[in-house]
Prior knowledge:
InterPro entries: CmpA. This protein starts with a helix and ends with a helix. It has one domain (3-44). 89% of the residues lie in helices and 0% in strands. By secondary structure, it is an all-alpha fold.
Amino acid sequence: MPNWLSNQIMRAFNKRDRRQIRLLNDCWFFYYSRRNSQGETSSMQ
């Protein structure tokens, strides 16, 4: 997980900002799925 994203999530949890937590969670899953799909396609070639 990128350091900036980790910091943002920790800040949102500390503030108990549910909207921000949901948004950052979606960002993490998008980042993670995109990173995995790129790794799989590059290993297939």
